[in-house]
Task: structure prediction
Amino acid sequence: MTGPVPVPTPATAPYWEGAQREELTIQRCQSCTQHYFYPRPFCPYCNSDDVAWTPVSGRGRLVSYVINYRPIPPFDSETPIVVALVELDEGPRLMSNVIGVDADPENLPLDLALEVTFVERGETKLPMFMPLQESAR
Result:
């Protein structure tokens, strides 16, 4: 797969390190036990700075999406691309791509059960989502 490669920052480095291990990790507040995403040094629910990176199930549901039919220059991206808002079973929502299914609205019903997979892009692994096999739920 071709396309842009993320550049980790100090705040996002643990997320990308987890992805390299093919493990989806997000932050969890140790005070109120809430998971949250996007990375930040304090809990958005209780303002505690007692937060830690924790592995999550990697399962979730499709909340919203757009099918992008236009290539993104200067990258030789494959089109169409499903850009999705995924709500993890643990609660937080994150933007990603849905792969492994034809980019057709008939194949992408809202609430579709998804699971994370990791796609190599250069020397980086990107978390993306595929429809969850019914027997795995």
Summary: The radius of gyration is 16 Å. The chain has a mean pLDDT of 92.
